[in-house]
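Entry 0007
Protein: General secretion pathway protein GspB
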Amino acid sequence: MSNVLNALKASEQRNKQYGVMSVSPNFEPAQADTRQGTSNWRLCVLAAVMPCVVGLGFAGYQSYQQQKEVALALSVAQKRVVEVPNEFSVHDSPRFEPLMSTFVEPTGLAGRATDENTPTTSESPVVSNQRTLTVEPKKDLVKPEPDELSQLDLTQLSPELARRVQSVMNQSGQANGSSDNPRGGKSQQNTIKLNHHSSDFIGQLPAMNFQTHVYSSQANKRWVKINDVEYMEGDWIDSRVQLVKIEPQSSIVEFESQRLEIPALYDWQG
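Output (structure tokens):
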């Protein structure tokens, strides 16, 4: 098969060579005219096609630019401002009702202090902040006779303790005398409540800050702390004020022949 193809190619080449050699010189101008006509035709076609190509290219370029601008506009997030109308309205003013009282009666000291005639089963002190009020239950004790107290030897005690024991002995003697004659002496003297008549003693009665109040059924165990000093019944607070008696919820002092009842843990400014 390859031999046949080679033979055909060789025959075709010989025919081409023979045709070129057999062409006469008179035939060349006609062939040149034909080639020139073909070139002119091509130029005409190219001249007619070029405006269309240029127009299509320009239209494609404009379309590309428009699509680019649209894509750019869509890619940028636009802020949307929404205006909401602000409506003005008038409302009624609130109604204020009378306020309810929230005051609660204190039940710390007055409620816990045991009355002298009321028995109690608790012997623990009642403490209120930095002030102390202690009330011990009343017990029936056998009091020593005055003669036995007078026979006590106070020389072996310290001066402070001897002074307190002597004041207790004096107080016991006064109590015995008042029990024998209940209508005589100062036992029936009117007692003035200082917290109700404070204006009458401002500037006269010295300042007294009752910091601790301890009451017991035994008189020798009752004491109060006034102005950082401890006092028992019968002690003199100063030259004009004497502590006469310690009650469960108050103390009684004598000032210029007047007996004043001062509540427990009371701060008298003077």
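Curator remark: Strands lie at 126-128, 131-135, 191-193, 208-215, 223-226, 229-231, 241-246, 250-255, 258-263, 267-268. The mean pLDDT is 72.
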